[in-house]
Write a structure and sequence with these properties.
The complex is a heterodimer of chains A (269) and B (161).
Chain A lengths: L16 E2 L3 E2 L3 E3 L9 E3 L7 H6 L8 H13 L9 H5 L8 H4 L2 E3 L4 E3 L1 H12 L10 H12 L15 H11 L10 H5 L6 E2 L2 E2 L10 E3 L4 E3 L1 H10 L11 H13 L9 E3 L1
Parallel strand pairs in A: 9-11
Antiparallel strand pairs in A: 1-2, 3-4, 5-6, 7-8, 9-10
Helix pairs in contact in A: 2-6, 7-10
Chain B lengths: L1 H19 L26 H9 L32 H4 L2 H14 L37 H11 L6
The chains are: A alpha+beta (269), B mainly alpha (161).
């Protein structure tokens, strides 16, 4: 096949060890609820060797600058209650393990909540501060700081119990062929992962690496921003960040990565 | 003798009729295998123009899913989602190719290949790639009837035998 020389294929079996010490699970057996695939793989395994290398050392990972900014925000007093995140949660390490369960059922609210929703609940109702926009820098950076506390821990999202109906809704969306191109998430990320679509090497569309630093826009990107781009590319009317539809889709897609290490902030192209 | 002359006149008359009008997307007649016998535009396809449609991102962008060796030097990065189109004219006739390009879902049930000459029946149709809702009930087809004829003419040149 006469393909352009610009696509440097990655080493399929490469291992992801961060800072020479934290070994990540980037390939593992698919969770039982995944009917059509035997093995799940992190998006990292599909990237070029150069992009992969950027995630192997925190000095090279451009996403870490934004984590540093989030540490400042964590300690910064804001809002009418004159509190910071640190006032109630102590250090960010108190968030250890949280990212692997997100999104999750919130008993008090009676619905599935993402990390962004928990953060805004604290800002609005506990700090008396303004809510952050879903893709606002402060918000995405804070989700990266929280994700980092779980780096290397296996994704373990609950899909049963009260979250099940939301999970089913997300699953149905995953297989719906949206837009004038009539393409579902599964058409690209389940039926065609490892294939090139034009110059893009299709991954399994996993979200264990989020938020993801993209070389394309040189910032951290939220899960819903990525979903939005993929739906738009089918010539469809997209859903909004934070919409009930994207929350359901996030739960379903997150559960497809159960068993892979949480990688955020990851580096992608 | 007389009879032959008559049928030849009939044939010419019917060809004349077809070329007078374009076939709208909702009026395309597919046979049971998905083939379309009649030209959609009524004007012969131009293979050189079709070659541009196939390789241009804002038009057919067929190369995002299909590799075509003959184009590889000029147009980099061909996809692997669909089969390579080298020699496609050895595998299919013109009517079958026209049907596949117009609406591949009739030839291949459930295929990933988009339908290029269709205007309705979409879930959350958008306004092109803006992410906004479509502004009309029926969408303009992805390719015009003439673009499809041009693409068919181009694909008919892809022979290996």
């Amino acid at each position: 096949l006469a393909l352009g020389a610009g696509i440097a294929s990655a080493d399929e079996d490469a291992a992801l060890i961060i800072n020479g010490e934290t070994e990540m699970v980037v390939r593992t057996e698919a969770p039982a609820h995944l009917e059509n695939m035997d093995e799940i793989r992190s998006g990292w395994t599909f990237r070029s060797a150069e992009t992969q290398a950027l995630q192997m050392d925190d000095f090279d990972n451009p996403g870490m600058i934004f984590v540093d900014q989030a540490i400042d925000t964590w300690n910064q007093v804001s809002g009418s209650e004159e509190k910071s995140c640190a006032s109630c949660h102590e250090g960010p390490e108190s968030m250890k393990g949280l990212r692997t369960q997100m999104p999750k059922w919130n008993e008090a609210a009676g619905e599935v909540w993402t990390t962004e929703m928990y953060i805004n609940d604290c800002r609005e109702n506990r700090m008396g501060a303004d809510k952050w926009g879903w893709n606002a820098k402060d918000m995405v950076n804070m989700t990266a700081l929280i994700a980092l506390q779980s780096r290397g821990m296996p994704m373990n999202v609950a899909i049963d119990g009260p979250a099940q109906a939301t999970w089913e809704q997300g699953k149905e969306m995953y297989y719906t062929r949206y837009g004038q191109l009539e393409l579902s998430c599964a058409n690209c990320h389940e039926d065609n992962y490892d294939n090139l679509i034009r110059a893009d090497h299709l991954s399994q569309g996993q979200i264990n690496g989020f938020p993801a630093y993209r070389l394309k826009n040189a910032k951290l990107n939220s899960i819903h921003a990525r979903f939005k781009g993929c739906v738009r590319d089918t010539r469809a009317e997209t859903f909004k960040e934070g919409s009930p539809e994207f929350i359901a889709l996030e739960l379903y897609v997150a559960s497809r990565a159960n068993g892979l290490s949480s990688e955020g902030p990851s580096v992608r192209n | 003798m007389k009879r032959i002359t008559l049928s030849a006149t009939c044939l010419m008359a019917s060809v004349g009729l077809v070329s007078a009008a374009e076939v709208a997307p909702e009026n395309v007649e597919y046979d049971e295998y998905g083939a379309v016998a009649v030209s959609l535009s009524g004007t012969a396809g131009d293979a050189a123009a079709g070659r541009v449609v196939v390789s241009t991102k804002s038009q057919g962008n067929c190369v995002s899913c299909h590799a075509i060796s003959e184009l590889a030097e000029e147009v980099p990065f061909h996809g692997e989602v669909g089969p390579p189109l080298d020699g496609v004219a050895d595998r299919w006739g013109e009517a079958e190719i026209r049907g596949i390009v117009a609406n591949a879902k009739i030839t291949y049930d459930g295929t990933i290949m988009p339908s290029f000459y269709k205007t309705t029946g979409y879930i959350r149709p958008g306004d092109a790639y803006t992410g906004k809702a479509a502004t009309t009930d029926t969408l303009p087809p992805l390719l015009t009837s003439q673009q499809i004829e041009d693409v068919v003419a181009y694909l008919m040149t892809l022979k290996e035998e």
